[in-house]
Amino acid sequence: MTGQNARRVTVVPNGPVLVEGPVELVTEDGVTHTSDRFVVAVCACRRSKRYPFCDTSHRKRVRTDG
Ligand code: FES
């Protein structure tokens, strides 16, 4: 698969890895996770409560009360 048929994978700095879907993702425990989304955000920080998928937990929390 090359050129126009190549699947695009985009690494977001300090964020997830975006993969063109649909995907089947196998984690280190052998479990297969599937997603039919057009673009799938794969967690690269391990903080996601929906791991292996990103839930935006990688974002730094910014206090707005001060
Ligand atoms: S990369 Fe977004 S929660 Fe881990």
From TrEMBL:
Transmembrane segments: none annotated. Keywords: 2Fe-2S, Iron, Iron-sulfur, Metal-binding. SMART domains: ZnF_CDGSH. The keyword Iron applies. The keyword Iron applies. One of its GO terms (cellular component) is cytoplasm. One of its GO terms (molecular function) is 2 iron, 2 sulfur cluster binding. Residues 20-64 form the Iron-binding zinc finger CDGSH type domain. InterPro entries: FeS-contain_CDGSH-typ (IPR018967), MitoNEET_CISD (IPR042216). Pfam families: zf-CDGSH. This is Iron-binding zinc finger CDGSH type. It comes from Lentzea xinjiangensis. The lineage of its organism: Bacteria, Bacillati, Actinomycetota, Actinomycetes, Pseudonocardiales.
